[in-house]
Amino acid sequence: MKIIADENIPFAAECFSSVGECLTYPGRKITSQIIKDADGLIVRSITTVDEKLLAGAKVKFVGTATIGFEHIDVDYLEKHKIGFSSAPGSNANSVAEYITSALLNLADKYEFDISKKTIGIIGVGNVGSRVEKKAKALGMKVVLNDPLLQRKTGDEKYRPIDEIFDCDVITLHTPLTLEGKDKTYHLADEIFFKSLKKDAIFINTSRGSVHDTAALKKVIMAGKLTACVLDVWENEPNIDIELLDMADLATPHIAGYSYDGKVAGMIMIYEAFCEFFGIKPENTIADFLPEPKIERIAVNDDKKALQSTVNKLYDIREDDANLRSIKNETADNRGAFFDGLRKNYRIRREFQNTAVHIKNEKLKKVFEELGFKPK
Length: 375
Fold this sequence. Notes:
- This protein has 375 residues and is of the alpha/beta class.
- It has 16 helices and 13 strands.
- The protein folds into 3 domains: 2-90 and 258-287, Rossmann fold (3-Layer(aba) Sandwich), CATH 3.40.50; 92-250, 3-Layer(aba) Sandwich (Rossmann fold), CATH 3.40.50.720; 296-370, Ribosomal Protein S8, Chain: A, domain 1 (2-Layer Sandwich), CATH 3.30.1370.170.
- The strands form 3 sheets. The protein has a 6-stranded parallel β-sheet with strand order 7-6-8-9-10-11. A 5-stranded parallel β-sheet has the order 2-1-3-4-5.
């Protein structure tokens, strides 16, 4: 068999070589000509998979190593009996750790106590539920909003969006949907931002079009927000440079880019591929995850212990600085620069790979609830 995969999926060629020939290409350069004689197609979010791409190809299986799949025409796949799998939950912990680093660094910058803040989480799927756990570990009061889950479960823990507007921090973790009762396209629009309490912190790590860029810039210029954290942008990779300058923390769509998360997503698709074709999988995630560079950390019992320890594993400010270098590029080169930051992203391991050594039992519990290994 022949498999075409996005070159930005780590170990895709090595893993899928157990089932056939696997060739890798840049995600934005995967064309109908390239896949015409392929049996399988493995992509990430930057490749649109629809009739235009697949017509005339013999592709029998499509996988996306991402949790969202709005870039996939699943109706077309179903109509043509093409197998499909995404990787739900694979990068959820990575995004939650990104949010953790963002909150701790903002707390240091603006000198506020996280444990005295409320956080409103819009979208409580795999990612949102992980964010909820880490926010509670930090002592935050959590308000959840997910209309779909509320209707499905009737659980009163899912609150109306009006209650979200009263929170100190608002973070978006929804898929991008363009129509329907729960449409999320421009969910964060002018009315949304006007409804927020003054000095709120706004975070979007879902999809760029879940917020309205013009409305967001307007509310920032009005001085209503304390801070804005953006990992996703409308019109990626050609992002709004003016909005970049306004954001406190700005990153190139890498919140879910932990090495653990990327490899997990790849393995999920590999296993689904094997199941679809009736092949016994030969590889597991353990075959591709190296030993962590930081196996243990001795934690000082001080007020910055959480921030300094988290930053040793993931300091969001590094990604912020890297993205801001995009302003040194010409307008024509900025899209390629944005994609390059993602393609060449460093190996970032998750908290569970590192043990913390600390005497303070209360603080030790916080670290454990954040995902660190106990010591």
